[in-house]
Amino acid sequence: MKPVSGKKAVKPKKRSAPAAEAELPFAESVGYQIRATHRALQRFLQSKIEPHGITLGMWYFLRALWHEDGLTQRELSVRVGTMEPTTLSAILIMEKRGLVRRVRNRDDRRKWHIHLTAKGRGLKGKLLPLAREVVDTAVHNLSRGEVAQLLKALSEVQKSLHATLVRLDGANNGTAE
Question: Pseudo-torsion of CA 165, 170, 171, 176, nearest 10°?
Answer without folding.
Answer: -120
